[in-house]
Amino acid sequence: MTALEKIGAAPVRVGSTALYDWDDLVQEDRAHRLIYTDPAIFEAEMTHIFGGTWTYLAHESEIPDVNDFITRNLGLRPLIIVRDAEGKIRALYNRCTHRGTTLCRFDKGNSKSFQCPYHGWNFLNTGRLRGVPWPDGYAEDMRDPKYNLAQVPRVETYRGFIFGTLNLDALPLAEHLGPIATVIDEWLDRNPGGRVVVCEANRFRFKANWKLAYDNSCDGYHVAYSHRSLLETENRFAGENAKGMAYYRNSPDAQPMYMRYTGRGNHYKDKRPNLEKRPGGLWALESAHPGMEHYEADFIRRYGDRAFSLLDLAGSEPVNINVFPNLSLLGNHIQVFEPVGVDETNAIWYGTMIVDDGSIGADGVRDINALRMRTQEGFPNFGEVDDIANFEQIQRGLMAVEDEWVYMNRGLGITDRVKTNNDGTITAPATDEAFMREHFKEWKRLMQTRANLAIRREP
Ligand code: FES
Ligand SMILES: [Fe+2]
Predict the structure, then answer these.
(1) Where are the alpha helices (DSSP H) in 30-179?
(2) Interior/surface letters 155-168, b for 16+ CB within 10 angstroms, e for the rest
(3) Whose CA is nearest to atom 1 of ligand 1?
(4) pLDDT score at 230
(5) For residue range 336-354, what is the model confidence (pLDDT) as tens digits?
(6) For 177-211, how does the pLDDT look when each residue is reduced to its tens digit (9 = 90+)?
(7) Is 24 helix (H, G, I), strand (E, B) or coil?
(8) Cα 387–chain centre separation
(9) What is d(CA 389, CA 385) in angstroms, rounded to the nearest whole number?
């Protein structure tokens, strides 16, 4: 018995998807409704995408100590993400090897072992079966590795972000991330010590396909329309000084912001060039929050010239970083998309805090984090309700079977509008759909590939 068990991932294994010509379904300028509505395609995605490529699982700050665990999903696989007694991060299948029930029913905790609620089999947090009740009822040797929990064979972290894949041939994570890693570095490095800690989450569930959320993650075309009420609220008290996302109001493509596709389905919308480059440039854009003037005056009194660069740490970072298929860093949030069914998805928004590296002091860090709580109640997070309303209405529209296509051709075919850079990345104006055309090429590549997938068990 080897520790690795190969699992099939050929498209032919999964129902009717072998009947589809993927190049017909996803073309350069349009995608077919079936990719959002067909349960067989969804089932194939749960192996080819969620499993076939690196997928975000959790953040290291959620399991800081040995024996800490949290429960998450990789596609539809329930997982326990655990830091075992030796500090190794593992992604165990949260599925008892006896009859298959979920083993751990808690969101998080600290435990050296997990006892199955059904018949009491007990597993160490390394995944090994530790013991079963009344073992003399078994003729077999229960130390056979087949009884140890399945685990995701490859788990790697990039600066605190934990990813997993079942694909034995996937590139090492840092190589797979490629140029998007530089933008993640920038997102982290503006914070003291170059790190953040995950706080609690704001959880949404919507009745629509997960890709509709990813299609929206870099969409600069919808903002002025979908989020109009929020833009108006942000600016109600602002007078001449436009706040928040106001730069989307008039000709967004005339602004210095842009989108860039960096490969492997990853892209980002960079609104940072819209800011005034000075300490406090980001803070100046923050919409009105209760008590912010008090904090600002207090920071100036306590920190003098340094106050505004500290206040910038509370400001919502104007960049959306999207790591295919399920991770978005938006403002100061870590957003995760969790497919539930072909027409059902969780969107979970984890808030983040900064930590004291000695450069600010505990009081300053506490106050910045208090302000971050307020700013994280602002645009990106509370814009989600507008977006979800659209996702659900798209799903409804896509049930009209005769009207088959959705279009993603904005910017396509206009000379010099979409540029391929020397490093192979692609840049386009803020409202272009180039990001969507490109991430669908990666989606199609994964759906067409017979990947080398496996699960692992402790020997
Ligand atoms: S299903 Fe877990 S012990 Fe029976
Ligand atoms: Fe939006």
Answers:
(1) 34-37, 39-48, 173-177
(2) bbebbbbbbbbbbe
(3) 99
(4) 83
(5) 999 999 999 999 999 999 9
(6) 999 999 999 999 999 999 999 999 999 999 999 99
(7) helix
(8) 16
(9) 6
CA distance 352 to 199: 5
Residues framing ligand 1 (Cβ under 6 A): 96, 98-99, 101, 116, 118-121
Residue 9 alpha carbon to ligand 1 centre in Å = 28
Which residue minimizes the CA distance to atom 3 of ligand 1?
A: 119
β pairing state of 344-354 and 113-115:
unpaired
pLDDT at 239: 67
Question: Left, alpha or beta for 109 (phi > 0: left; psi -120 to 50: alpha)?
Answer: left
- Checking if the pLDDT of 11 tops 60, the result is no
Percent of the chain with pLDDT over 70: 96
What separation in Å is there between the alpha carbon of 386 and the centre of ligand 1? 43
**Which ligand is in closest contact with the Cα of 103?**
1
Mean pLDDT, the chain, whole residue set? 93
Residue 95 alpha carbon to ligand 1 centre in Å: 9
Token pair, residue 76, equals 């539809």
